[in-house]
Amino acid sequence: MNRLIDQIMGIRGSPVKQEVESRLEGFRSFDKRPAEDWFSELCFCILTANSRAITALNIQEELGHNGFCGYPHRDLSQAIKRHKHRFHNTKAQFIIDARCHLDIKQKMQQMVREKGEHEAREWLVKNIKGIGYKEASHFLRNVGYNNLAILDRHILGLLHDDGMIDRPKSLTGRDYLNIEEKFISLADEANMSPAELDMYMWYMKTGEVLK
Which residues are part of the catalytic machinery? Predict the structure, then answer.
């Protein structure tokens, strides 16, 4: 067992485990939650790109699905700007453009059922402006799918520090998939899902258990 897994197992044996399990249970609950909540989560993940997760979370808590689903561009942009998010006009437009997929819950559940999580992620990357592999993986994890890697700077940093990867200057789709294979192998070695491993590794870098 390598040094990184030793560290993760140490955290898993602490009270943090209860926080992680509670968060994962919240993700699983999306199966029974309304489509509006899924769309709100999609907008949250659009907002996480080029921003801190806590900033996106604060915007989501202010707007809720009513704001994401119904506010005009000006009101969306102003709300995003109030939280000092970069690219507030662009992000507002991405959210408005995404409204043609208010049925994202139905689309994702059907696609995962018929083609799997990886194909659902490919669809998101191709069809939702402002969503790349990281954000699409984040969204799918947050609505209850456990088998994709969310390769943000914190995770990449830990994998690099452990000698598993050379930290890329930019992350192409091919790079993402190659590193994801190593992340999933690490999850298998730790006997946990990629979703669970992500939360422990994120905690290692931030000291927080967020979504």
Answer: 134, 152
CA 178 to chain centre: 18
Tokens of 64: 């809720």
**Residue 34 burial (CB < 10 Å; 0-12/13-18/19+)?**
exposed
HSE, side-chain direction, 13 A CA sphere, residue 82: 12
27-82 tens-digit pLDDT: 999 999 999 999 999 999 999 998 988 999 999 999 999 999 999 999 999 999 99
For residue 167, the model assigns a pLDDT of: 83
Q: Which residue type does 202 have?
A: W
C-alpha–C-alpha distance, residues 134 and 202, integer Å = 14
* pLDDT lower than 70: segments of the chain: 1
The whole-number pLDDT of residue 210 equals 86
Do 24 and 60 lie in one domain? The reply is no
The single residue listed with the structure tokens 């993986």 is 137
58 and 104 share one domain: yes
Helices (H), the chain: 3-12, 16-28, 35-48, 53-70, 73-82, 88-98, 104-115, 117-127, 133-142, 153-161, 173-190, 194-206
Which two three-digit tokens encode residue 203? Answer: 């905690």
The CATH number for 12's domain is: 1.10.1670.10
Residue 133 CB partners (closer than 8 Å, separation 6+): 121, 125, 151, 171, 173, 176, 177
